[in-house]
Specification:
By secondary structure, the chain is mainly α. It contains 6 helices and no strands. Helix 3 runs antiparallel to helix 4, helix 4 runs parallel beside helix 6 and helix 5 packs antiparallel against helix 6.
């Protein structure tokens, strides 16, 4: 019985809308923010991809901007709390690759904002990697 409730609870959490996640991230503890921000960004990635496929370029650009903004928030929270650094970096890399794939399907005029987003995600990754492998984190060795 407990297992069934736990599975049902996990499914409910997985089905949260982007709006619900955004509301949760505002109230979340700093150490919980990175994971919430990643989930929001991943949902926005799916939305952006669909919007580009449907030809809604302006709305897709807005979703791409949201992706970057939430990864930057995830980075900031991860660096502040020194938790989830690796998870945020890995997720940013995967989303960056997906955005690069999406960019190749777009008209030339629509590619620049996506390329800009990919560069900003790479900046997020760079900060996280520096934080993970810095001397101060290792105790100054």
């Amino acid at each position: 019985m407990f297992f069934m409730l736990a599975v049902a609870g996990a499914n409910c959490a997985a089905d949260e809308t982007t709006a619900q996640l955004k509301a949760r991230v505002e109230k979340a503890r700093p150490e919980d923010r990175p994971e919430l921000c990643i989930r929001i960004a991943q949902q926005e990635l799916h939305v952006a991809d669909n919007l580009y496929v449907e030809g809604h370029v302006d709305e897709a650009r807005a979703a791409v901007n949201e992706i970057v903004a939430y990864f930057e928030e995830a980075r900031d929270a991860a660096v502040q709390t020194k938790t989830h650094l690796k998870n945020v970096e890995i997720a940013a890399r995967k989303v960056s690759v997906k955005l690069s794939d999406i960019k190749r399907t777009l008209a030339f005029d629509d590619q620049a904002p996506v390329e800009q987003a990919v560069r900003r995600l790479e900046d997020v990754r760079t900060v996280l990697l520096k934080e993970m492998f810095s001397d101060k984190r290792k105790g100054g060795r």
